[in-house]
Amino acid sequence: MAVETAPLDASRYTWVVEKISSIVLRKRSPKWWYTTVMISGAFVCLLVVAIAYLFGKGIGIWGVNNPVFWGFAIINFVWWVGIGHAGTLISAILFLFKQEWRTAINRSAEAMTLFAIACAGLFPLIHLGRPWFAYWFLPYPSSTLLWPQFRSPLMWDVFAIGTYLTVSAIFWYIGLVPDLATMRDRAQNRLVKILYGIFSLGWRGSAMHWNRYEMAYLLLAGLATPLVVSVHSVVSLDFAVGIIPGWHVTMFPPYFVAGAVFSGFAMVLTILLPLRSALDLKSIITDDHVDKMAKVMLTTGLIVGYGYIMEAFFGWYSQNTYELSMIKNRMFGPYAWAYWMLIFCNILVPQLLWIPKVRRNALILFPISIIINVGMWLERFVIVVTSLHRDFLPSAWDLYIPTFWDYATYAGTLGFFFFCFMLFIRFLPMVSIFEVSELRYRHRHAEAEGAH
Amino acid sequence: MAEGVYGLVAEFDDPDRLIEAARRARESGYRRMDAYTPFPVHGLLEALGKRPTRLQWIVFIAAVLGGVGGYYLQYWIAAVDYPINVGGKPLNSWPNFIPVTFEMAVLVSAIVAAVVMFALNGLPQPYHPLFKVERFQRASQDRFFLCIEAEDPRFDLEETRRFLESLNPLSVEVVEP
Lengths: 452, 177
Prior knowledge:
heterodimer; A: mainly alpha; Formate dehydrogenase/DMSO reductase fold; 15 helices; globular; B: alpha+beta; Alpha-Beta Plaits; 2 domains; four-stranded antiparallel sheet; 46% helix; rod-shaped
Protein backbone atom coordinates (compact mmCIF):
# COMPACT_ATOMS: atom_id res chain seq x y z
CA MET A 1 0.00 0.00 0.00
CA ALA A 2 1.57 3.27 -1.10
CA VAL A 3 1.01 5.61 1.80
CA GLU A 4 1.76 9.23 1.09
CA THR A 5 2.44 10.45 4.60
CA ALA A 6 5.30 11.42 6.83
CA PRO A 7 6.36 8.91 9.50
CA LEU A 8 5.45 9.66 13.10
CA ASP A 9 7.07 8.49 16.30
CA ALA A 10 5.69 5.23 17.54
CA SER A 11 4.09 6.96 20.47
CA ARG A 12 1.49 5.09 22.43
CA TYR A 13 -1.66 7.00 21.67
CA THR A 14 -1.13 8.72 18.35
CA TRP A 15 -0.77 5.78 15.98
CA VAL A 16 -4.46 6.47 15.34
CA VAL A 17 -3.48 9.64 13.48
CA GLU A 18 -1.34 7.67 11.09
CA LYS A 19 -3.77 4.81 10.72
CA ILE A 20 -6.86 6.90 9.90
CA SER A 21 -5.23 9.56 7.77
CA SER A 22 -3.46 6.92 5.68
CA ILE A 23 -6.84 5.54 4.57
CA VAL A 24 -7.51 8.88 2.91
CA LEU A 25 -4.02 10.00 1.93
CA ARG A 26 -2.89 6.91 0.04
CA LYS A 27 -2.41 7.37 -3.68
CA ARG A 28 -4.43 4.47 -5.01
CA SER A 29 -7.93 3.42 -4.09
CA PRO A 30 -8.50 -0.29 -3.54
CA LYS A 31 -10.33 -2.27 -6.22
CA TRP A 32 -13.43 -2.84 -4.10
CA TRP A 33 -13.78 0.90 -3.75
CA TYR A 34 -13.97 1.39 -7.53
CA THR A 35 -16.40 -1.50 -7.82
CA THR A 36 -18.74 -0.12 -5.17
CA VAL A 37 -18.56 3.40 -6.55
CA MET A 38 -19.40 2.17 -10.04
CA ILE A 39 -22.32 -0.02 -8.97
CA SER A 40 -23.81 2.64 -6.68
CA GLY A 41 -23.07 5.29 -9.31
CA ALA A 42 -25.14 3.31 -11.81
CA PHE A 43 -28.06 3.44 -9.38
CA VAL A 44 -27.58 7.20 -9.02
CA CYS A 45 -28.02 7.39 -12.80
CA LEU A 46 -31.18 5.30 -12.46
CA LEU A 47 -32.43 7.79 -9.84
CA VAL A 48 -31.79 10.70 -12.19
CA VAL A 49 -33.69 8.94 -14.97
CA ALA A 50 -36.58 8.04 -12.64
CA ILE A 51 -36.90 11.62 -11.40
CA ALA A 52 -36.58 13.11 -14.88
CA TYR A 53 -39.34 10.82 -16.15
CA LEU A 54 -41.44 11.65 -13.08
CA PHE A 55 -41.11 15.38 -13.66
CA GLY A 56 -42.03 14.90 -17.28
CA LYS A 57 -45.07 12.66 -16.77
CA GLY A 58 -46.27 13.40 -13.23
CA ILE A 59 -46.81 11.01 -10.33
CA GLY A 60 -49.16 8.86 -12.39
CA ILE A 61 -46.11 6.76 -13.28
CA TRP A 62 -46.13 5.53 -9.68
CA GLY A 63 -48.58 3.02 -8.25
CA VAL A 64 -50.31 5.64 -6.10
CA ASN A 65 -53.98 6.17 -6.79
CA ASN A 66 -57.27 6.43 -4.93
CA PRO A 67 -57.41 5.38 -2.05
CA VAL A 68 -53.65 4.88 -1.47
CA PHE A 69 -52.08 8.23 -2.25
CA TRP A 70 -49.06 7.88 0.01
CA GLY A 71 -47.33 4.75 -1.33
CA PHE A 72 -43.57 4.34 -1.69
CA ALA A 73 -42.72 8.02 -1.37
CA ILE A 74 -43.91 8.25 2.24
CA ILE A 75 -42.72 4.74 3.14
CA ASN A 76 -39.22 5.54 1.91
CA PHE A 77 -39.28 8.99 3.50
CA VAL A 78 -40.02 7.57 6.96
CA TRP A 79 -37.55 4.72 6.45
CA TRP A 80 -34.68 7.03 5.47
CA VAL A 81 -35.35 9.57 8.24
CA GLY A 82 -35.36 6.70 10.72
CA ILE A 83 -31.99 5.48 9.48
CA GLY A 84 -30.59 8.94 9.92
CA HIS A 85 -31.52 8.99 13.59
CA ALA A 86 -28.89 6.47 14.68
CA GLY A 87 -26.14 8.87 13.64
CA THR A 88 -27.51 11.66 15.82
CA LEU A 89 -28.14 9.25 18.67
CA ILE A 90 -24.54 8.04 18.54
CA SER A 91 -22.99 11.48 18.15
CA ALA A 92 -25.22 13.54 20.46
CA ILE A 93 -27.03 11.39 23.02
CA LEU A 94 -24.12 9.04 23.69
CA PHE A 95 -21.88 12.11 23.96
CA LEU A 96 -24.08 13.62 26.66
CA PHE A 97 -24.08 10.31 28.51
CA LYS A 98 -20.26 10.23 28.24
CA GLN A 99 -20.28 6.89 26.41
CA GLU A 100 -16.68 6.95 25.25
CA TRP A 101 -17.05 4.04 22.85
CA ARG A 102 -18.94 6.31 20.50
CA THR A 103 -15.73 7.98 19.27
CA ALA A 104 -14.89 4.99 17.08
CA ILE A 105 -18.12 5.20 15.11
CA ASN A 106 -19.60 8.68 15.51
CA ARG A 107 -18.04 10.30 12.43
CA SER A 108 -19.22 7.62 10.02
CA ALA A 109 -22.62 7.45 11.70
CA GLU A 110 -23.04 11.23 11.33
CA ALA A 111 -22.10 11.01 7.66
CA MET A 112 -24.68 8.27 7.30
CA THR A 113 -27.24 10.58 8.93
CA LEU A 114 -26.57 13.36 6.43
CA PHE A 115 -26.88 11.12 3.39
CA ALA A 116 -29.96 9.41 4.79
CA ILE A 117 -31.72 12.75 5.41
CA ALA A 118 -30.82 13.85 1.89
CA CYS A 119 -32.53 10.69 0.55
CA ALA A 120 -35.47 11.18 2.91
CA GLY A 121 -36.00 14.83 2.01
CA LEU A 122 -36.11 13.96 -1.68
CA PHE A 123 -39.27 11.86 -1.39
CA PRO A 124 -41.80 14.40 -0.07
CA LEU A 125 -40.42 16.90 -2.61
CA ILE A 126 -40.88 14.68 -5.65
CA HIS A 127 -44.20 13.45 -4.24
CA LEU A 128 -45.59 16.99 -4.46
CA GLY A 129 -46.81 16.60 -8.00
CA ARG A 130 -45.57 20.07 -8.84
CA PRO A 131 -42.18 19.97 -7.10
CA TRP A 132 -41.10 23.28 -8.62
CA PHE A 133 -43.52 24.91 -6.18
CA ALA A 134 -41.87 23.30 -3.14
CA TYR A 135 -40.86 26.76 -1.91
CA TRP A 136 -44.54 27.46 -1.20
CA PHE A 137 -43.93 25.56 2.03
CA LEU A 138 -41.75 28.35 3.31
CA PRO A 139 -43.39 31.28 5.09
CA TYR A 140 -42.30 34.13 2.84
CA PRO A 141 -44.29 37.26 1.95
CA SER A 142 -45.65 36.20 -1.42
CA SER A 143 -47.52 38.19 -4.06
CA THR A 144 -50.51 35.83 -3.58
CA LEU A 145 -50.83 37.12 0.02
CA LEU A 146 -51.22 33.53 1.21
CA TRP A 147 -49.42 31.93 4.14
CA PRO A 148 -48.73 28.29 5.00
CA GLN A 149 -51.10 26.59 7.44
CA PHE A 150 -49.10 26.08 10.62
CA ARG A 151 -51.77 23.91 12.23
CA SER A 152 -50.88 21.10 9.84
CA PRO A 153 -48.30 18.43 10.75
CA LEU A 154 -47.03 18.65 7.17
CA MET A 155 -45.77 22.17 7.93
CA TRP A 156 -44.19 20.90 11.17
CA ASP A 157 -42.46 18.32 9.03
CA VAL A 158 -40.95 20.96 6.77
CA PHE A 159 -39.44 22.73 9.77
CA ALA A 160 -38.41 19.54 11.56
CA ILE A 161 -36.64 17.99 8.56
CA GLY A 162 -35.11 21.30 7.48
CA THR A 163 -33.76 21.96 10.97
CA TYR A 164 -32.57 18.39 11.30
CA LEU A 165 -30.62 18.48 8.04
CA THR A 166 -29.06 21.85 8.89
CA VAL A 167 -28.11 20.94 12.46
CA SER A 168 -26.73 17.54 11.40
CA ALA A 169 -24.58 19.20 8.75
CA ILE A 170 -23.28 21.80 11.23
CA PHE A 171 -22.55 19.15 13.86
CA TRP A 172 -20.72 16.98 11.34
CA TYR A 173 -18.65 19.82 9.93
CA ILE A 174 -17.65 21.18 13.34
CA GLY A 175 -16.52 17.70 14.33
CA LEU A 176 -14.47 17.51 11.13
CA VAL A 177 -12.57 20.82 11.41
CA PRO A 178 -9.71 19.71 13.73
CA ASP A 179 -9.33 16.51 11.71
CA LEU A 180 -9.21 18.47 8.46
CA ALA A 181 -6.34 20.43 10.02
CA THR A 182 -4.60 17.14 10.75
CA MET A 183 -5.12 16.07 7.14
CA ARG A 184 -3.76 19.44 5.96
CA ASP A 185 -0.63 18.97 8.01
CA ARG A 186 -0.10 15.37 6.92
CA ALA A 187 -0.82 15.72 3.22
CA GLN A 188 2.28 15.79 1.01
CA ASN A 189 0.57 16.83 -2.21
CA ARG A 190 0.37 20.62 -2.53
CA LEU A 191 -3.14 20.72 -4.01
CA VAL A 192 -4.49 18.31 -1.37
CA LYS A 193 -2.86 20.44 1.33
CA ILE A 194 -4.51 23.60 0.01
CA LEU A 195 -7.93 21.97 -0.20
CA TYR A 196 -7.80 20.61 3.33
CA GLY A 197 -6.33 23.97 4.37
CA ILE A 198 -9.36 25.82 3.04
CA PHE A 199 -11.88 23.56 4.74
CA SER A 200 -10.00 23.44 8.05
CA LEU A 201 -10.40 27.26 8.21
CA GLY A 202 -6.89 27.71 9.59
CA TRP A 203 -7.50 25.62 12.70
CA ARG A 204 -4.36 25.52 14.85
CA GLY A 205 -5.51 23.90 18.08
CA SER A 206 -5.07 26.88 20.40
CA ALA A 207 -6.14 26.26 24.00
CA MET A 208 -8.72 29.05 23.89
CA HIS A 209 -10.05 27.77 20.57
CA TRP A 210 -10.44 24.27 22.00
CA ASN A 211 -12.33 25.68 24.96
CA ARG A 212 -14.91 27.42 22.76
CA TYR A 213 -14.95 24.44 20.43
CA GLU A 214 -15.80 22.02 23.21
CA MET A 215 -18.52 24.33 24.50
CA ALA A 216 -20.04 24.65 21.02
CA TYR A 217 -19.88 20.88 20.55
CA LEU A 218 -21.53 20.24 23.89
CA LEU A 219 -24.30 22.74 23.11
CA LEU A 220 -24.89 21.22 19.68
CA ALA A 221 -25.09 17.77 21.25
CA GLY A 222 -27.58 19.12 23.77
CA LEU A 223 -29.63 20.68 20.97
CA ALA A 224 -29.48 17.65 18.68
CA THR A 225 -30.73 15.28 21.37
CA PRO A 226 -34.26 16.70 21.80
CA LEU A 227 -34.21 17.55 18.09
CA VAL A 228 -33.86 13.94 17.01
CA VAL A 229 -36.73 12.92 19.27
CA SER A 230 -38.85 15.79 17.96
CA VAL A 231 -38.16 14.96 14.31
CA HIS A 232 -39.47 11.44 14.35
CA SER A 233 -42.29 12.44 16.67
CA VAL A 234 -43.35 15.01 14.10
CA VAL A 235 -43.02 12.40 11.35
CA SER A 236 -45.30 10.11 13.37
CA LEU A 237 -47.77 12.97 13.87
CA ASP A 238 -48.15 13.15 10.08
CA PHE A 239 -49.97 9.89 10.65
CA ALA A 240 -51.37 10.18 14.17
CA VAL A 241 -53.14 13.52 13.64
CA GLY A 242 -55.18 11.93 10.84
CA ILE A 243 -58.25 9.92 11.76
CA ILE A 244 -57.39 6.93 9.57
CA PRO A 245 -57.83 3.61 11.45
CA GLY A 246 -54.48 2.34 12.73
CA TRP A 247 -52.89 5.80 12.63
CA HIS A 248 -54.89 7.71 15.21
CA VAL A 249 -52.90 6.40 18.18
CA THR A 250 -51.15 8.33 20.98
CA MET A 251 -48.41 5.69 21.06
CA PHE A 252 -47.06 6.68 17.64
CA PRO A 253 -44.32 9.18 18.62
CA PRO A 254 -42.33 6.97 21.03
CA TYR A 255 -42.99 3.91 18.89
CA PHE A 256 -41.65 5.68 15.79
CA VAL A 257 -38.60 7.03 17.60
CA ALA A 258 -37.67 3.56 18.87
CA GLY A 259 -38.18 2.11 15.39
CA ALA A 260 -35.96 4.84 13.94
CA VAL A 261 -33.11 4.04 16.30
CA PHE A 262 -33.60 0.32 15.67
CA SER A 263 -33.28 0.66 11.90
CA GLY A 264 -30.52 3.26 12.16
CA PHE A 265 -28.27 1.02 14.21
CA ALA A 266 -28.99 -1.82 11.79
CA MET A 267 -27.81 0.41 8.93
CA VAL A 268 -24.69 1.47 10.85
CA LEU A 269 -23.80 -2.21 11.24
CA THR A 270 -24.64 -2.98 7.60
CA ILE A 271 -22.12 -0.36 6.53
CA LEU A 272 -19.42 -0.68 9.17
CA LEU A 273 -19.08 -4.46 9.41
CA PRO A 274 -17.80 -4.89 5.83
CA LEU A 275 -15.87 -1.60 5.94
CA ARG A 276 -13.88 -2.38 9.04
CA SER A 277 -12.72 -5.63 7.43
CA ALA A 278 -11.93 -3.96 4.13
CA LEU A 279 -10.03 -1.07 5.74
CA ASP A 280 -8.46 -3.16 8.49
CA LEU A 281 -10.03 -1.05 11.24
CA LYS A 282 -10.78 -3.85 13.70
CA SER A 283 -8.40 -2.32 16.24
CA ILE A 284 -10.47 0.91 16.28
CA ILE A 285 -14.00 -0.37 15.66
CA THR A 286 -13.65 -3.38 17.94
CA ASP A 287 -15.94 -6.30 18.72
CA ASP A 288 -16.89 -4.42 21.90
CA HIS A 289 -18.32 -1.60 19.81
CA VAL A 290 -20.26 -4.02 17.66
CA ASP A 291 -21.51 -5.77 20.78
CA LYS A 292 -22.81 -2.49 22.24
CA MET A 293 -24.55 -1.56 18.98
CA ALA A 294 -26.21 -4.98 18.92
CA LYS A 295 -27.46 -4.39 22.47
CA VAL A 296 -29.00 -1.07 21.45
CA MET A 297 -30.69 -2.87 18.54
CA LEU A 298 -32.03 -5.55 20.84
CA THR A 299 -33.45 -2.97 23.28
CA THR A 300 -35.11 -0.80 20.66
CA GLY A 301 -36.28 -3.95 18.85
CA LEU A 302 -38.12 -4.99 22.00
CA ILE A 303 -39.76 -1.56 22.26
CA VAL A 304 -40.86 -1.86 18.64
CA GLY A 305 -42.18 -5.36 19.33
CA TYR A 306 -44.18 -3.95 22.23
CA GLY A 307 -45.55 -1.38 19.78
CA TYR A 308 -46.83 -4.11 17.43
CA ILE A 309 -48.51 -5.93 20.28
CA MET A 310 -50.12 -2.71 21.53
CA GLU A 311 -51.39 -1.88 18.03
CA ALA A 312 -53.20 -5.21 17.94
CA PHE A 313 -54.44 -4.65 21.49
CA PHE A 314 -55.77 -1.16 20.69
CA GLY A 315 -57.68 -2.56 17.74
CA TRP A 316 -59.44 -5.07 19.96
CA TYR A 317 -59.79 -2.88 23.07
CA SER A 318 -61.28 0.08 21.18
CA GLN A 319 -64.18 -2.14 20.03
CA ASN A 320 -64.39 0.28 17.14
CA THR A 321 -65.54 -1.43 13.93
CA TYR A 322 -63.00 0.34 11.75
CA GLU A 323 -60.05 -0.19 14.10
CA LEU A 324 -60.98 -3.84 14.57
CA SER A 325 -61.38 -4.55 10.87
CA MET A 326 -58.14 -2.67 10.15
CA ILE A 327 -56.12 -4.90 12.46
CA LYS A 328 -57.82 -8.03 11.08
CA ASN A 329 -57.10 -6.85 7.56
CA ARG A 330 -53.51 -6.14 8.50
CA MET A 331 -53.02 -9.68 9.85
CA PHE A 332 -55.10 -11.72 7.42
CA GLY A 333 -55.89 -9.41 4.46
CA PRO A 334 -54.15 -9.16 1.09
CA TYR A 335 -51.01 -7.69 2.67
CA ALA A 336 -50.78 -10.28 5.46
CA TRP A 337 -47.49 -11.54 4.00
CA ALA A 338 -45.90 -8.14 4.67
CA TYR A 339 -47.23 -8.08 8.25
CA TRP A 340 -45.96 -11.53 9.16
CA MET A 341 -42.65 -10.89 7.42
CA LEU A 342 -42.18 -7.79 9.55
CA ILE A 343 -43.01 -9.72 12.72
CA PHE A 344 -40.40 -12.27 11.67
CA CYS A 345 -37.76 -9.66 10.79
CA ASN A 346 -38.29 -7.23 13.67
CA ILE A 347 -39.42 -9.41 16.57
CA LEU A 348 -38.23 -12.98 16.03
CA VAL A 349 -34.82 -12.55 14.38
CA PRO A 350 -33.49 -9.87 16.80
CA GLN A 351 -34.05 -12.31 19.69
CA LEU A 352 -30.82 -13.96 18.51
CA LEU A 353 -29.05 -10.89 19.90
CA TRP A 354 -29.60 -12.16 23.44
CA ILE A 355 -26.73 -14.58 22.75
CA PRO A 356 -23.37 -12.86 23.44
CA LYS A 357 -21.58 -14.90 20.76
CA VAL A 358 -24.00 -13.67 18.10
CA ARG A 359 -23.39 -10.04 19.08
CA ARG A 360 -19.67 -10.51 18.46
CA ASN A 361 -19.87 -12.55 15.29
CA ALA A 362 -19.82 -10.29 12.25
CA LEU A 363 -20.85 -13.10 9.91
CA ILE A 364 -24.15 -13.60 11.76
CA LEU A 365 -24.66 -9.96 12.71
CA PHE A 366 -24.35 -8.67 9.15
CA PRO A 367 -27.32 -10.70 7.80
CA ILE A 368 -29.31 -9.83 10.94
CA SER A 369 -28.71 -6.12 10.31
CA ILE A 370 -29.98 -6.46 6.74
CA ILE A 371 -33.02 -8.43 7.91
CA ILE A 372 -33.84 -5.61 10.36
CA ASN A 373 -33.51 -3.01 7.60
CA VAL A 374 -35.93 -5.01 5.48
CA GLY A 375 -38.26 -5.47 8.45
CA MET A 376 -38.35 -1.78 9.25
CA TRP A 377 -39.10 -0.95 5.62
CA LEU A 378 -41.96 -3.48 5.72
CA GLU A 379 -43.25 -1.89 8.94
CA ARG A 380 -43.67 1.46 7.18
CA PHE A 381 -45.20 -0.32 4.19
CA VAL A 382 -47.74 -2.00 6.46
CA ILE A 383 -48.55 1.21 8.35
CA VAL A 384 -49.02 3.28 5.20
CA VAL A 385 -50.71 0.80 2.90
CA THR A 386 -52.92 -1.41 5.08
CA SER A 387 -54.52 1.58 6.78
CA LEU A 388 -55.23 3.41 3.54
CA HIS A 389 -56.29 0.72 1.10
CA ARG A 390 -59.33 -0.28 3.17
CA ASP A 391 -60.49 2.60 5.33
CA PHE A 392 -64.19 3.35 5.91
CA LEU A 393 -66.36 2.64 2.88
CA PRO A 394 -65.91 -0.78 1.22
CA SER A 395 -66.88 0.80 -2.11
CA ALA A 396 -63.70 2.89 -1.93
CA TRP A 397 -61.37 -0.05 -1.23
CA ASP A 398 -58.60 -0.92 -3.63
CA LEU A 399 -55.19 -2.59 -3.72
CA TYR A 400 -51.92 -0.71 -3.96
CA ILE A 401 -49.45 -2.14 -6.45
CA PRO A 402 -46.11 -0.35 -6.87
CA THR A 403 -44.78 0.11 -10.40
CA PHE A 404 -41.29 -0.20 -11.86
CA TRP A 405 -40.71 3.52 -11.25
CA ASP A 406 -41.51 3.14 -7.56
CA TYR A 407 -38.83 0.48 -7.25
CA ALA A 408 -36.42 2.40 -9.47
CA THR A 409 -36.66 5.55 -7.34
CA TYR A 410 -36.18 3.57 -4.15
CA ALA A 411 -33.20 1.64 -5.53
CA GLY A 412 -31.84 4.92 -6.85
CA THR A 413 -31.80 6.51 -3.39
CA LEU A 414 -30.07 3.41 -2.00
CA GLY A 415 -27.44 3.87 -4.70
CA PHE A 416 -27.12 7.57 -3.88
CA PHE A 417 -26.67 6.76 -0.19
CA PHE A 418 -23.86 4.25 -0.76
CA PHE A 419 -22.28 6.43 -3.46
CA CYS A 420 -22.03 9.38 -1.04
CA PHE A 421 -20.72 7.13 1.69
CA MET A 422 -17.97 5.75 -0.57
CA LEU A 423 -16.88 9.27 -1.49
CA PHE A 424 -16.91 10.18 2.20
CA ILE A 425 -14.56 7.36 3.26
CA ARG A 426 -12.18 8.21 0.41
CA PHE A 427 -11.88 11.95 1.00
CA LEU A 428 -12.53 12.51 4.70
CA PRO A 429 -11.25 10.79 7.85
CA MET A 430 -13.95 8.28 8.70
CA VAL A 431 -13.05 8.07 12.38
CA SER A 432 -12.67 11.16 14.55
CA ILE A 433 -8.87 11.35 14.87
CA PHE A 434 -8.66 13.92 17.65
CA GLU A 435 -11.35 12.29 19.76
CA VAL A 436 -9.75 8.84 19.59
CA SER A 437 -6.33 10.35 20.36
CA GLU A 438 -7.78 12.20 23.33
CA LEU A 439 -9.49 9.05 24.57
CA ARG A 440 -6.23 7.12 24.39
CA TYR A 441 -4.44 9.88 26.27
CA ARG A 442 -7.09 9.90 28.99
CA HIS A 443 -6.97 6.11 29.36
CA ARG A 444 -3.19 6.20 29.66
CA HIS A 445 -3.56 8.95 32.22
CA ALA A 446 -6.07 6.95 34.23
CA GLU A 447 -3.79 3.90 34.16
CA ALA A 448 -0.82 5.97 35.34
CA GLU A 449 -2.87 7.33 38.24
CA GLY A 450 -4.09 3.87 39.18
CA ALA A 451 -0.48 2.68 39.38
CA HIS A 452 0.50 5.26 42.01
CA MET B 1 9.89 43.59 22.94
CA ALA B 2 11.92 42.25 20.07
CA GLU B 3 11.51 43.60 16.55
CA GLY B 4 10.57 41.19 13.76
CA VAL B 5 9.63 38.38 16.07
CA TYR B 6 6.13 37.02 16.76
CA GLY B 7 7.30 34.95 19.68
CA LEU B 8 9.09 31.84 20.85
CA VAL B 9 7.52 28.43 20.61
CA ALA B 10 8.51 25.39 22.65
CA GLU B 11 7.57 21.86 21.67
CA PHE B 12 6.63 19.10 24.10
CA ASP B 13 5.78 15.47 23.56
CA ASP B 14 3.26 15.12 26.35
CA PRO B 15 0.16 17.10 27.41
CA ASP B 16 1.08 16.90 31.10
CA ARG B 17 4.48 18.43 30.45
CA LEU B 18 2.78 21.20 28.48
CA ILE B 19 0.42 22.00 31.37
CA GLU B 20 3.38 22.12 33.73
CA ALA B 21 5.26 24.42 31.33
CA ALA B 22 2.25 26.73 30.98
CA ARG B 23 1.90 26.90 34.75
CA ARG B 24 5.58 27.75 35.22
CA ALA B 25 5.45 30.38 32.47
CA ARG B 26 2.54 32.02 34.21
CA GLU B 27 4.33 31.92 37.55
CA SER B 28 7.28 33.62 35.87
CA GLY B 29 5.01 36.49 34.93
CA TYR B 30 4.26 35.76 31.26
CA ARG B 31 0.73 36.62 30.17
CA ARG B 32 0.65 36.91 26.36
CA MET B 33 0.96 33.24 25.47
CA ASP B 34 -1.05 30.41 24.02
CA ALA B 35 -0.79 26.64 23.89
CA TYR B 36 -1.50 24.48 20.87
CA THR B 37 -2.55 20.84 21.09
CA PRO B 38 -3.87 18.15 18.73
CA PHE B 39 -6.83 17.50 21.02
CA PRO B 40 -8.46 19.38 23.91
CA VAL B 41 -6.35 19.09 27.06
CA HIS B 42 -8.26 19.81 30.24
CA GLY B 43 -6.51 21.95 32.80
CA LEU B 44 -4.49 23.77 30.15
CA LEU B 45 -6.71 26.84 30.13
CA GLU B 46 -6.42 27.24 33.90
CA ALA B 47 -2.64 26.78 33.71
CA LEU B 48 -2.45 29.54 31.09
CA GLY B 49 -4.59 31.73 33.33
CA LYS B 50 -7.28 32.34 30.69
CA ARG B 51 -10.97 32.67 31.35
CA PRO B 52 -13.26 29.96 30.00
CA THR B 53 -15.67 30.92 27.24
CA ARG B 54 -19.14 32.33 27.83
CA LEU B 55 -20.45 31.07 24.52
CA GLN B 56 -23.29 29.25 26.27
CA TRP B 57 -24.99 32.53 27.23
CA ILE B 58 -24.91 33.81 23.67
CA VAL B 59 -26.44 30.53 22.50
CA PHE B 60 -29.06 30.70 25.24
CA ILE B 61 -30.14 34.15 24.08
CA ALA B 62 -30.23 32.86 20.50
CA ALA B 63 -32.45 29.95 21.56
CA VAL B 64 -34.90 32.29 23.31
CA LEU B 65 -34.99 34.66 20.34
CA GLY B 66 -35.43 31.77 17.91
CA GLY B 67 -38.29 30.31 19.92
CA VAL B 68 -40.07 33.62 20.46
CA GLY B 69 -39.54 34.55 16.81
CA GLY B 70 -40.80 31.16 15.65
CA TYR B 71 -43.95 31.45 17.77
CA TYR B 72 -44.58 35.04 16.74
CA LEU B 73 -44.23 34.11 13.07
CA GLN B 74 -47.01 31.54 13.40
CA TYR B 75 -49.17 33.71 15.63
CA TRP B 76 -48.93 36.65 13.25
CA ILE B 77 -49.70 34.49 10.21
CA ALA B 78 -52.54 32.48 11.77
CA ALA B 79 -54.20 35.13 13.94
CA VAL B 80 -53.33 38.53 12.43
CA ASP B 81 -52.47 38.53 8.74
CA TYR B 82 -54.39 35.54 7.46
CA PRO B 83 -56.98 34.43 10.04
CA ILE B 84 -59.01 31.37 9.04
CA ASN B 85 -61.97 30.51 11.22
CA VAL B 86 -62.04 26.72 11.56
CA GLY B 87 -65.21 25.67 13.35
CA GLY B 88 -65.00 28.65 15.73
CA LYS B 89 -61.77 27.40 17.23
CA PRO B 90 -59.34 30.00 18.64
CA LEU B 91 -57.10 31.66 16.07
CA ASN B 92 -54.14 31.59 18.42
CA SER B 93 -54.20 27.77 18.66
CA TRP B 94 -50.96 27.57 20.61
CA PRO B 95 -50.61 23.78 20.99
CA ASN B 96 -50.37 23.53 17.20
CA PHE B 97 -47.55 26.04 17.20
CA ILE B 98 -45.28 24.22 19.65
CA PRO B 99 -43.39 21.96 17.19
CA VAL B 100 -42.31 24.79 14.88
CA THR B 101 -41.48 27.04 17.86
CA PHE B 102 -39.19 24.32 19.17
CA GLU B 103 -37.58 23.65 15.79
CA MET B 104 -36.90 27.36 15.28
CA ALA B 105 -35.28 27.64 18.73
CA VAL B 106 -33.00 24.71 17.89
CA LEU B 107 -32.21 25.92 14.38
CA VAL B 108 -31.30 29.46 15.40
CA SER B 109 -29.24 28.43 18.40
CA ALA B 110 -27.33 25.74 16.45
CA ILE B 111 -26.41 28.19 13.70
CA VAL B 112 -25.44 30.84 16.26
CA ALA B 113 -23.36 28.32 18.26
CA ALA B 114 -21.37 27.38 15.17
CA VAL B 115 -20.95 30.85 13.69
CA VAL B 116 -20.13 32.58 16.99
CA MET B 117 -17.67 29.86 17.99
CA PHE B 118 -15.70 30.32 14.77
CA ALA B 119 -16.02 34.11 14.91
CA LEU B 120 -14.71 34.35 18.49
CA ASN B 121 -11.84 32.09 17.47
CA GLY B 122 -11.04 34.44 14.62
CA LEU B 123 -11.54 31.66 12.07
CA PRO B 124 -11.34 31.33 9.12
CA GLN B 125 -7.80 32.65 9.31
CA PRO B 126 -5.71 31.31 6.44
CA TYR B 127 -2.42 32.71 7.72
CA HIS B 128 -0.86 32.57 11.14
CA PRO B 129 2.83 33.13 11.96
CA LEU B 130 3.05 29.69 13.59
CA PHE B 131 2.26 27.98 10.28
CA LYS B 132 5.73 29.05 9.11
CA VAL B 133 7.37 26.90 11.78
CA GLU B 134 8.06 23.54 10.15
CA ARG B 135 7.67 21.55 13.36
CA PHE B 136 4.31 23.15 14.12
CA GLN B 137 2.69 20.75 11.63
CA ARG B 138 2.86 18.23 14.43
CA ALA B 139 0.57 20.42 16.59
CA SER B 140 -2.41 18.77 14.89
CA GLN B 141 -0.95 15.28 15.29
CA ASP B 142 1.12 14.32 18.30
CA ARG B 143 3.04 17.30 19.68
CA PHE B 144 2.12 20.00 22.20
CA PHE B 145 3.33 23.58 21.84
CA LEU B 146 3.63 26.59 24.10
CA CYS B 147 4.12 29.93 22.41
CA ILE B 148 5.15 33.05 24.37
CA GLU B 149 4.37 36.06 22.23
CA ALA B 150 6.72 39.01 21.71
CA GLU B 151 3.97 41.39 22.77
CA ASP B 152 4.32 40.20 26.33
CA PRO B 153 5.97 42.99 28.35
CA ARG B 154 8.36 40.49 29.94
CA PHE B 155 9.39 39.04 26.58
CA ASP B 156 13.11 39.11 25.91
CA LEU B 157 14.47 36.97 23.10
CA GLU B 158 17.46 35.63 25.06
CA GLU B 159 15.91 35.44 28.50
CA THR B 160 12.65 33.91 27.35
CA ARG B 161 14.53 31.36 25.28
CA ARG B 162 16.59 30.40 28.33
CA PHE B 163 13.43 30.13 30.36
CA LEU B 164 11.68 27.90 27.80
CA GLU B 165 14.76 25.69 27.51
CA SER B 166 14.71 25.21 31.27
CA LEU B 167 11.32 23.49 30.87
CA ASN B 168 12.95 20.54 29.02
CA PRO B 169 11.15 20.92 25.69
CA LEU B 170 11.98 18.95 22.54
CA SER B 171 12.80 22.19 20.75
CA VAL B 172 12.53 25.96 21.04
CA GLU B 173 12.14 28.03 17.89
CA VAL B 174 11.75 31.68 16.97
CA VAL B 175 8.45 32.48 15.25
CA GLU B 176 8.63 35.17 12.60
CA PRO B 177 5.56 37.36 12.05
